């Protein structure tokens, strides 16, 4: 782009000229970072567009974009559509500069992915694993899986790590808080373990919060009021309020698996009696299916057990989809009881979308129809007027995408001013209070 001498001169005293044109976002750094983020999110991708959206003069835009290119955040791409004159060049965010490692630990498996800064899955690996084997052994396994991925992708420069675990997490310290199904994990410094290894910022969060983040990324809508309910081995919910994850004072928000349900005396694995999980979760269904088969029930689940296989929640949901009577009755009971707890959430939180995911809910319509019926029956009419209740995309990459979305939010919306000058994020920039 050609720049006249006058424009450059106007821009020389950095702040004074742009102060007038740019309202509150006055200083050089703020506008530079805003421009990088505009290109990154696609809000504006050419210099003229950036000028229109920000109100910054052409000279300032040129100067800031040049800075961002020099620092390696942006580069010139293709020529964009012309609006009459010469077509402006589009800018692109260099999402290949850094990589995000996402470790999604479930109750019974570990999923690890290497993600680009734009959230694309670059590579991934998966293992069956029991989280109750404790943090030392579990995290050794996670590290092995990461090594396997980095071995296949030696050029990856790790900018951030996200770790999801199936229990409440104190997000500030990165430590699980009294997780009911994770013996030995209470207060364990998960973050430190990864920081030491990667010299990069690490964020630890509840696994269902990752799924809620994934849903936000998939929908591409910033201001969502959404509840993601995962009904798998365990049960939990992730809450998005105007697009922001609501974690609560101790990280326990949305942990609905251990609320008491009516008419149940079932012991829960958390030690209490009558929890939602003890009736409606995957492990409860496996328990009840096993008992029913022992009592003489026939059908698909009985055949699986007769073949010597251990029943899983997936067997029950697949059985229900295939029309097996025992599986259908178990899935419907789970959905009915879960639906009552979800109805309470709807009354309290008034979401516009409820996404139901997890192995039990993967039975699809059989499950969803029952949840819908309970929610509409038990919720206030105003709270359900514009409510949609849908199945998750049921894609195993959901937690990976969600973990990348969390890291992207932290890197570029929260901590960017603290690290951009150095060219890559640091541990201190992410957690300035405790280094
Ligand atoms: Zn419980």
From TrEMBL:
Identify the SUPFAM superfamilies for this entry: Actin-like ATPase domain, Winged helix' DNA-binding domain
> Which family is this protein grouped under?
Belongs to the ROK (NagC/XylR) family.
How is this protein named in the record?
N-acetylglucosamine repressor
């Amino acid at each position: 782009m050609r720049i006249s001498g006058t424009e450059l001169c106007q821009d020389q005293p950095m702040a004074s000229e742009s102060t007038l044109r740019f309202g509150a976002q006055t200083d050089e750094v703020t506008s530079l970072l805003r421009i990088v983020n505009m290109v990154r999110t696609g809000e504006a991708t050419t210099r003229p567009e950036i000028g229109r959206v920000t109100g910054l003069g052409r000279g300032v835009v040129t100067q800031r974009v040049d800075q961002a290119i020099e620092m390696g955040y942006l580069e010139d791409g293709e020529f964009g559509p012309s609006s009459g004159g010469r077509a402006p060049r589009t800018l692109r965010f260099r999402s290949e500069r850094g990589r995000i490692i996402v470790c999604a630990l479930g109750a019974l498996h570990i999923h690890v992915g290497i993600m680009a800064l734009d959230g694309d899955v670059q590579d991934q690996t998966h293992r069956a694993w029991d989280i109750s084997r404790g943090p030392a052994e579990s995290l050794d396994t996670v590290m092995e899986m990461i090594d396997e991925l980095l071995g296949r992708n030696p050029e990856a420069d790790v900018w951030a790590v996200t770790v999801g675990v199936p229990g409440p997490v104190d997000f500030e310290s990165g430590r699980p808080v009294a997780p009911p199904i994770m013996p030995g994990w209470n207060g364990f410094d998960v973050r430190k373990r990864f920081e030491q290894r990667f010299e990069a910022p690490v964020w630890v969060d509840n696994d269902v919060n990752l799924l809620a983040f994934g849903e936000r990324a998939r929908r591409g809508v910033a201001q969502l009021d959404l509840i993601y309910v995962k009904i798998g081995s365990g049960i939990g919910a992730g809450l998005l309020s105007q697009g922001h994850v609501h974690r609560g004072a101790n990280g326990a928000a949305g942990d609905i698996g251990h609320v008491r349900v009516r008419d149940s005396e079932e012991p829960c694995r958390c030690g209490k009696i009558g929890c939602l999980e003890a009736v409606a979760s995957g492990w409860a269904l496996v328990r009840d299916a096993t008992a029913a088969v022992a009592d003489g029930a026939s059908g698909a689940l009985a055949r699986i057990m007769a073949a010597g296989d251990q029943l899983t929640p997936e067997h029950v949901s697949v059985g229900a989809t295939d029309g097996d009577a025992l599986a259908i009755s178990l899935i419907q009971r789970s959905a009915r009881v879960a639906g009552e707890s979800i109805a309470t959430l709807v009354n309290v939180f008034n979401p516009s979308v409820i996404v139901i995911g997890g192995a039990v809910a993967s039975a699809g319509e059989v499950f969803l129809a029952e949840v819908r019926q309970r929610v509409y029956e038990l919720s206030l009419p105003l709270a359900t007027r514009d409510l949609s209740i849908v199945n998750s995309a049921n894609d195993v990459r959901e937690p990976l995408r969600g973990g990348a979305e969390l890291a992207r939010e932290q890197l570029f919306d929260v901590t960017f001013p603290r690290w951009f000058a150095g060219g890559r994020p640091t541990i201190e920039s992410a957690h300035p209070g405790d280094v």
